[in-house]
Specification:
This protein has 180 residues and is mainly alpha-helical. The protein is built from 7 helices and no strands.
Length: 180
């Protein structure tokens, strides 16, 4: 999503891209969500103008938002891992997964690397990042609402209905067959 909004001179703009991270993890699951984000970053690295302001190319991976870009992959994976642990998807469960993966993980990677790249103290960058909290909470609410709505309308889209790994699907098959 090329549109962005930079507030108060912060080096990292406000976008809806983290909403995509939350939705990728919640709807695709951990592995598929992380792979979707890796594919997105590969396209960005190849030069496609997919980031805010139409940015793309290898230079974005040495800029102030590099930690957040890495956080796209980790955040989608964590959202997916948390969602996959539930037996049923509810708004509140997906909201918690989106907050943990789509916010906490992203901030845990983005803030320190932004401080490193910009040369600002970690506390200054962390304080400046507080302005993102209300918008990110709103994105988490939207991600939870969309996820629950999609799964209700199309149950096959639920990451809970797919085997997550070859090992898990083997375990599920052996549990389903009668013991000899």
């Amino acid at each position: 999503m090329p549109g962005s909004l930079a507030l108060f001179g912060n080096a990292v703009p406000i976008t809806l891209q983290t909403l995509g991270v939350m939705l990728a993890g919640a709807l695709l699951g951990a592995w598929r969500g992380a792979l979707a984000m890796l594919t997105f970053l590969a396209l960005v690295a190849a030069g496609l103008p997919l980031l805010s302001g139409g940015r793309g190319g290898p230079a974005v991976f040495v800029g102030p938002s590099v930690g957040y870009l890495i956080g796209f992959v980790a955040g989608a994976a964590v959202v997916g891992l948390i969602v996959e642990r539930f037996r049923t998807l509810t708004f509140w469960r997906v909201l918690v997964a989106s907050v943990v993966g789509g916010m906490l993980v992203m901030y845990a990677l983005g803030i320190p690397l932004q401080a490193l790249v910009t040369g600002f103290p970690l506390q200054t960058v962390a304080t400046g990042s507080l302005m993102y909290l209300p918008g990110d909470l709103l994105k988490a609410v939207i991600a939870a609402s969309v996820t629950v709505g999609v799964v209700r309308a199309y149950p096959a889209a639920s990451p809970l209905r797919r085997p997550q790994s070859p090992r898990r699907s083997t375990e599920q098959r052996s549990a389903a067959s009668p013991a000899a």
